[in-house]
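Students often ask why we bother encoding 3D structure as a string. The short answer is that it lets us treat folding as translation between two languages. Here is a chain of 217 residues written in the first language.
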Amino acid sequence: MTPQAPTPAYRRLSVEERRSQLLGAALDLFAHRAPEDVSLDDVAEAAGVSRPLVYRYFPGGKQQLYEAALRSAADELQQCFDEPREGPPMLRLSRALDRYLAFVDQHGTGFSALLQGGSVVETSRTTAIVDEVRRVAAEHIYRHLGVTGPGPRLRMTVRMWITAVEAASLIWLDEGRQPPAGELRDWLVEQFMAVLTVTAGRDPQTAALVGALTGEG
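And here it is in the second language, the structure alphabet:
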């Protein structure tokens, strides 16, 4: 008789491992389908578990699972701007944008649903998570620029640029990821310098910053 290969031993997952597994399955589904088109049965099937098990870890159902998945994605997105403070600021910003656009590319549909809103699972809590990503991104940018006390005009400029990056990312997805990510990254960095330069004409703080960035300060 031909000896049979031993059956792999079943390993019981810890609470954190199981939760991570379920979140990973949910994130993958939300990356390719709008949140309202994903059911708990879909998540259970993708994770290879039963629906009651999903409820055991997320008793609040789909809403709780979506918020947890969104929080996980937001944590990853925030890290995109956590660049070491080494080298020229615009080069750091370029590297941060590379990671940001890679995240957008990977999460596609979920990213669009997240920023465009209107989802049936959107709540004040999910909106707060998205706003927190924007706030953290702005704080990272201030640190890279060497600014510890940004005034209202500089704050508005940075926040407007972050909004422009989000809009450009959505359009980029709609346009079939064209132009190439590297070209889009360079264009966004150039736009950042352009809006800083415009603000510099009205704000001494931004004027000093632009001078430092261009070597004219």
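Translate back mentally: The first helix runs from residue 15 to 32. Keep this in mind for the problem set.
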